[in-house]
């Protein structure tokens, strides 16, 4: 691991706080809020799945929008703007009761989230790479783990019902966005223009294609528990069971340690071998509520999926850059687009699966099959060459 100094900390903190705003408070807060909003009668499970679908569609569109924004102007202006817009949209949900309005806000939230989730970590990865500190890049995702814990606290303590449940999220998101937006802008200004110029190497080739195919399965595989595990817990557990709320806490705690864990695992085993182990554990986690329905299955799913999905992201991003260094920013955007596109299928499949009379528990078999696909393709990923 490279020597960690103050400038590294500042760069990592800027992107980590951005992920707290857009991906934890703006996006994943919906997961622990979902069963509460269902109890409030704001919408039913089918409509809740539709809202998740709109958000994931926006995420895909935002990731695609990040492709042409992966340039100096986009990083200096577009990235901070998307971050501030996302925080404003989280606040907007406090005042909307009708389903159409909520769907529009979740779509717009997903677009701004996709832009930030692609560009902020990619910007820091490029910034660190110029300083021979790429191995530190995975620590960016500590922000997401900490943000998920923060969401758990805010969901638990809020005294309000209905759309007002979003107010604590917004009151945290707005000042954090105002703090880290100028930090990201300064990082973008600190990058030399040449660092953004792609080389003549093709964006896609036979070396990185298996990695992209694996990531396609990963998006669908992880999104089911990260969206529906609290709702699934209501299906499998008694009404007074502590895991009805506690499952999100365990997911968030596992997520918090996972960034450091997989960052070190990649440095120790190599990113490719670490990614194979990651997919295997994640597959087991998604399958556990089906294999052992009840407290053991819910708890194991929370720990294994919460402890692996960020590792999938950081290991895949580093592998992609190692296989094709000259296309680092564009590959980051393409990968998140694939991830966003496949996870978009998750809520849509669950909506139709449950409408056909199947249980929410059985829908997790879709996620397990997707992760089996990811594991197969990850096995065919080439080992990066040191001189690349």
Strand proportion: under 5%
What is the highest CATH level, the class? Mainly Alpha
H/E element sequence: HHHHHHHHHHHHHH
C-alpha end-to-end distance? 18 Å
Number of strands: 0
Task: Work out the helix count.
Answer: 14
Shape: globular
Low-confidence stretches: 195-199
Reported for the largest beta sheet, the result is: none
Q: What name is given to the CATH topology?
A: Growth Hormone, Chain: A
Percent of residues in helices = over 70%
Structural summary, described in words:
With 388 residues, this protein is mainly α. It has a single domain (6-379), classed as Growth Hormone, Chain: A (Up-down Bundle). It contains 14 helices and no strands. The longest helix has 31 residues, at 99-129. The chain is globular, with a radius of gyration of 19 Å.
List keywords for this structure.
mainly alpha; membrane; 388 residues; single chain; 0% strand; transmembrane helix; MFS_4; Growth Hormone, Chain: A; 14 helices; globular; YbfB/YjiJ family MFS transporter
């Amino acid at each position: 691991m490279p020597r960690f100094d103050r400038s590294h900390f500042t760069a990592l903190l800027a992107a980590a706080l951005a992920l707290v705003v857009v991906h934890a408070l703006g996006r994943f807060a919906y997961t622990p809020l979902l069963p509460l909003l269902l109890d409030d009668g704001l919408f039913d499970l089918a409509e809740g799945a539709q809202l998740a679908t709109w958000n994931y569609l926006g995420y895909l569109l935002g990731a695609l929008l990040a492709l042409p924004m992966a340039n100096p102007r986009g990083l200096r202006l577009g990235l901070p703007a998307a971050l501030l817009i996302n925080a404003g949209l989280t606040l907007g949900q406090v005042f909307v009761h009708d389903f159409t309005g909520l769907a529009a806000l979740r779509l717009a939230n997903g677009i701004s989230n996709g832009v930030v989730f692609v560009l902020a970590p990619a910007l820091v990865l490029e910034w660190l790479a110029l300083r021979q500190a790429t191995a530190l890049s995975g620590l960016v995702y500590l922000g997401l783990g900490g943000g998920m814990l923060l969401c758990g606290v805010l969901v638990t303590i809020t005294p309000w019902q209905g759309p007002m449940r979003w107010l604590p999220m917004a009151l945290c998101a707005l000042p954090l966005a105002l703090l880290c937006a100028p930090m990201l802008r300064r990082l973008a200004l600190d990058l030399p223009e040449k660092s953004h110029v792609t080389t003549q190497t093709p964006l896609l080739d036979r070396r990185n294609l298996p990695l992209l195919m694996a990531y396609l399965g990963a998006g669908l595989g992880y999104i089911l528990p990260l969206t529906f595990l609290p709702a699934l817990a209501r299906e499998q557990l008694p009404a007074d069971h502590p895991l009805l709320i506690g499952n999100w806490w365990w997911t968030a705690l596992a997520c918090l340690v996972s960034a450091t864990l997989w960052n070190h695992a990649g440095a120790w085993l190599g990113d490719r071998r670490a990614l194979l182990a990651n997919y295997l554990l994640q597959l087991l986690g998604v399958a556990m509520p089906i294999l052992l329905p009840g407290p053991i299955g819910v708890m194991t799913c929370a720990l294994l999926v919460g402890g692996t999905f960020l590792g999938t992201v950081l290991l895949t991003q580093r592998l992609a850059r190692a296989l094709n260094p000259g296309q680092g920013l564009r590959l980051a955007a393409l990968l998140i687009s694939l991830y966003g596109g496949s996870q978009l299928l998750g809520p849509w499949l669950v909506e139709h699966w449950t409408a056909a009379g199947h249980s929410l528990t059985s829908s997790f078999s879709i996620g397990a099959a997707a992760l089996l696909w990811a594991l197969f393709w990850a096995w065919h990923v080439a080992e990066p060459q040191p001189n690349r």
